Amino acid sequence: MTGFLTLRRVAGLLVAVLVVLFVLALPFMVASGDIFFWDTVAVAVLFATSTNLLFGQAGIPSFGQAGFYAAGAYTAALAAQRGWPVLAVLVLAIVIAAALSAIAALVAWRITGLAFSMFTLAVAQSLYSFALKNGTLGGYNGLTGFSATSVAGVDVTDPGFLWYVVVIIVALGCFGFWVISRSSFGLTMRAIREDPVRSLFLGVNVRGYRVLAFALAGAGAGLAGALSAYVNLVVTPDTAYWTASAEPIIMLLLGGMSFFFGPAVGAVLLTALMHKLMNMTHAYVLYVGILLYLILLFLPRGVLSLSEVARAFRRRLSGDAQAVAAGTAGERAADAADATEQETSIVGRGRTQ
Amino acid sequence: MTGLAMGVLIFVVSSGLTLVLGVLRVANFAHGGFFLVGAYASYQIQQHHAQSLPVFIALVIVAGLITAVIGIATERLLFRQLYDLPEATMLLGTYALLLILQGAVQQIWGFNQKSQPEPKVLGSSVHLGSVEIPRYDILLFVVGVVVFLALWYTTKRTAVGRQISAVAEDRYMSSLLGIRVTGVYAATFTIGVFLAGLGGALAGPTLSMTPDIALTYILDAFAVVIVGGFGSITGSLVASLVIGLLGSYLAVYVPSLADFALYMPMIVILVLRPRGLFGAASGVRAAV
After folding, report:
1. Helix (H) or strand (E) holding A335
2. Neighbouring C-beta atoms of residue A200, cutoff 10 Å
3. How far apart are CA B219 and CA A125, in angstroms?
4. Which residue in B has a C-alpha nearest to residue A60's C-alpha?
5. Which chain A residues in 198-217 lie under 8 Å from chain B, judged by CB atoms?
6. Is the pTM of this model over 0.80?
7. How far is the CA of B266 from the CAs of A105, A120, A272, B229, B269, in angstroms?
8. Which of A117, A277, A304, B46 could be cross-linked to A63 through a Cys-Cys bond (beta carbons 3.0 to 4.6 Å apart)?
9. Which of B271, B288, B270 is nearest to A205 (CA)?
């Protein structure tokens, strides 16, 4: 496995080409109503990828990302109603959502673990109540009466063009998170996750890094929320409800939080699954619950780890004990080499943080 | 509904949650699901039979027991598998169970609002001077006192209770001393689920039932447990009453802030005193 053209890279390149072709061809393949569905998939990809900065990298178990998603959505709706251009609206939504999450993280300066999960849940629920009770935010009905007509001079009233714009922005957002995960900042975050005390002794400003990570994830959630406003043409308080915060978490678990593209894969799978389930039954949460339970228990590293699981299973079937030992050792070495693929993750950690 | 009665109702639900949290060290989202099961079980077995007080109370207890049986089955089949997993995974596992329970209730009873009237004898109010107190609130108040005393007696004065306290304190040492930790877990979980079901059965007449009450009540219960302190029954009682009274006070005088009666105490306590008002220092650790 030496040289530039490893099997892994070729496969990755092939998948990337297929994804790009799919994105380009989609408006010509499906009815314009179905493009809406794929818009929501793209938004979910960004939301899940941003949330994974917390779960998969920084080890911050936030249960309130929907609050910042909704903050971005409401900001976008309010600004768009006032005739702001789309790109300015998106930037404003990012700034507002990032500022809100930075404030929340600063208030929670000393809190970690389960208490932090509960804190973020309470913050998001406060935002939900605020949106529900506030007249200028439209109360229960939320905000409507805005749309994206043109982006940087390009007319996007056609759903196909809106799809291209959404995908480009989602891709840029995800690229941003990829750069973060590959940077020294990402490395430091993973060091903090693995051992906060040792990182502190090494001179890392642990709490500062956590606040920054939380603000960056909030910025991503805000951008996803703003895009969702343009896609749905309505923003309701439900986007901030605490069960909405669980969705990106289920997505990143489903895809595999230790892989950078795990949350994206999980977002596609879960959105498609929910779409199908909702058409078949109203009680779809039953099946989402069963899925989440099975994933946690039997596939804790997500569907992207299936190839490794299958490989280990095949080896066990062949009964060659030496090959098993050598294989796991080799896998460990490969995992250690790949910075984005950490064996342990937030879910793989004990309760002492 | 008065704030005090509301507080008592939240106490019944949250006391079970705090017990499970203190012993099993897991924030059990599924508790809301069992609350829901209790409410619908009570709705199912009562129909309009419960017109006298003893029958109503008996049926409420039966609903709690039905929930407890479902809880035991859940613990054996699904929950037990989660014990060895890390905290965050367990939290999401209990969320999965909440979704499963809520989805099952949706599947069985549908989404339409169900109303379950209180028995006729409890329908009116008692006049105490100029104050008017609904009879149902008085019943809730009595139940709250009984639950508190029963829990206090069980945890402090019985052998099972001492084992529960020991496991809550140090599960490893307890296992070395010959306590069957898994058995204690199961017992605690059963008591907790019974209380959730009892709370659900009692809450039925006070609200219009939809499967979504699982989601709202579990937040109430979490808020109480955080404010009161993980594992503290007394803390649960105090926090329930504070949150219930604050909620009804704000609902009357500052309606726009009524919902924040739940979240503001939660946030303030988490920031200033993460272990809660009555929590032991080991409940939630604020490391680094």
Report:
1. helix A321-337
2. 15
3. 9
4. B88
5. 200, 206-207
6. yes
7. 15, 11, 36, 11, 5
8. A117
9. B288
What ranges do the domains of chain A cover? Answer: 27-242, 308-353
* Angle ∠(A158,A163,A168) on CA atoms, nearest 5: 130
- A118 to B222: CB separation less than 8 angstroms, yes or no: yes
Per-residue pLDDT tens, chain A, 353 aa: give them. Answer: 456 678 888 888 999 999 999 988 888 888 877 889 999 999 999 999 999 999 998 889 999 999 999 999 999 999 999 988 899 999 999 999 999 999 999 999 888 888 899 999 999 999 999 998 888 888 888 898 888 777 777 777 788 888 999 999 999 999 999 999 999 999 999 999 888 889 899 988 899 999 999 999 999 999 999 999 999 999 999 999 999 999 999 999 999 999 999 999 999 999 999 999 988 888 899 999 999 999 999 998 999 988 888 888 888 887 655 555 555 544 544 444 443 334 344 444 433 33
The DSSP letter of residue B118 is P
Each residue of B213-267: pLDDT tens digit? 999 999 999 999 999 988 888 899 999 999 989 888 888 888 878 778 888 889 9
When scoring B87, B112, B230 by the number of chain A Cβ atoms within 10 A, the one with the most, hence best to mutate, is: B87
Q: Bridge-partner residues for A155, per DSSP?
A: A150
Residues 223-242 of B with CB under 8 A from A: 223, 226
Residues A266 and A253: beta-carbon distance below 8 Å: yes
Helix (H) or strand (E) holding A296: helix A285-298
Residue A100 CA to residue B35 CA, distance in Å, equals 34
B106: nearest CB among A126, A282, A290 = A282
CB contacts of A207 in chain B (<8 Å) are: 288
> Residues 6 or more apart from A36 whose CB is under 8 A from it?
A159, A231
Chain A segment 96-135 residues within 8 A of B by beta carbon are 107-108, 110-115, 117-119, 121-123, 125-126, 129, 132-134
CB neighbours of residue A266 within 10 Å: 30
Query: Residues 231-270, chain A: which have Cβ within 8 Å of B?
Result: 241-243, 246, 249-250, 253
A125 within 8 A of A96, measured Cβ to Cβ: no
Question: For the segment B135-180, what is each residue's pLDDT rounded down to a tens digit?
Answer: 888 889 999 999 999 998 988 888 888 888 888 888 888 889 988 8
CA distance B232 to B211: 29
Cβ–Cβ contact B260 with A under 8 A = yes
Test mutation, A118, A126, A353, chain B, max B CBs within 10 A: A118
**Which amino acid belongs to residue A54?**
L
A214 in Cβ contact with A54 (< 8 Å): yes
Minimal C-alpha gap between A188 and chain B (Å): 15
